[in-house]
Amino acid sequence: MFRGILIEKDESGYRAAVKDIDEACLPDGNVTVRVSHSTLNYKDGLAITGKGPVVRKFPMVPGIDLAGVVEESTHPEYQPGDSVLLNGWGVGEGHWGGLAQKARLNGDWLIPLPAQFSPRQAMAIGTAGYTSMLCVLALERHGVKPADGEILVTGAAGGVGSVAIAVLAKLGYSVVAVTGRPQDEEYLKYLGATEVLDRAQFSAPGKPLGRERWAGAVDVVGSHVLANVCATTKYRGVVAACGLAAGMDFPATVAPFILRGVTLAGVDSVMCPRAERLLAWQRLASDLDVEKLEKISREVGLSEAIPLAASLLNGEVRGRIIVDVN
Ligand code: NDP
């Protein structure tokens, strides 16, 4: 038996609880991992609370991230004792995930734990942090350089936002943070933001074009915020869009794209090809100060993760949550 969060849905409703789970119930896979740490991402919040249609099979162990040690493997690249890491691939949605002491998976979804990080540090980064790096890679791929001007980060005090600020600042960019939590200004400046703006300036419907200010942006919010960010991005600037914290809609016009040559770069972490994942983790190892991770993250146990899921969706969690599953 092993302990884990189990989500069930039946006539009596949708519920998540910490349970003792029989190992015989683990799904098929060629690698069994003894999980040490997992995390709580926005998507895990949706899965645990049932507020979004994330879980595709029941019962489900949530957890889109995990770090641990291989216990059994018939995959050619992994041996018992190897330290591994997993982000996405539908784990915690359609295949049992990381918020449990054991996971059985397709070894192709794993990557070796980068030597620079402990399992706990890798989970302090988690999908949110790895997605931040995918956004930075998207800005770079489209030619954005520190000398081009300011980079705007929305949802700044959340998981993706916090890591994005730390990485961009270390790379030499001038970073402006947008937050609904002005009380977190000191935290955002510690991470590397040079200026902190109130989310209210971005969340109402705006004009098709505004004063050009941003050389680039990382947006986790979507909706009017994303539309206003695009409308105020400089000529040939780049907006990396990865989230929907304010909504799936995108009430914008084509004006920024056809008149200013702005690029809207979509970022997905779930099905991202392995080579880019490896690059993103390699870049996190070189471009993220691990001491900042301590300030960004805090650790909880499995049972605390359940009530925190609702707080996370309410935008009340600062930075990242590490879950020690043992
Ligand atoms: P968090 O909850 O940690 O952060 C989201 C932040 O967005 C909040 O902290 C808050 O920041 C801001 N926010 C929340 N609600 C609103 C709102 N109604 N209007 C404006 N801003 C709001 O989540 P994550 O950082 O883990 O994820 C952020 C988003 O990115 C989510 O939508 C998630 O689904 C998405 N995501 C997408 C991935 C992909 O592969 N494309 C991978 C990872 C995440 P503040 O208080 O500072 O304003």
TrEMBL record:
InterPro entries: Acrylyl-CoA_reductase_AcuI, ADH-like_C, ADH-like_N, ER, GroES-like_sf, NAD(P)-bd_dom_sf, Zn-ADH-like_protein. Residues 9-323 form the Enoyl reductase (ER) domain. Pfam families: ADH_N (PF08240), ADH_zinc_N (PF00107). GO terms for molecular function: acryloyl-CoA reductase (NADPH) activity. This is Alcohol dehydrogenase. It comes from Zoogloea ramigera. The lineage of its organism: Bacteria, Pseudomonadati, Pseudomonadota, Betaproteobacteria, Rhodocyclales.
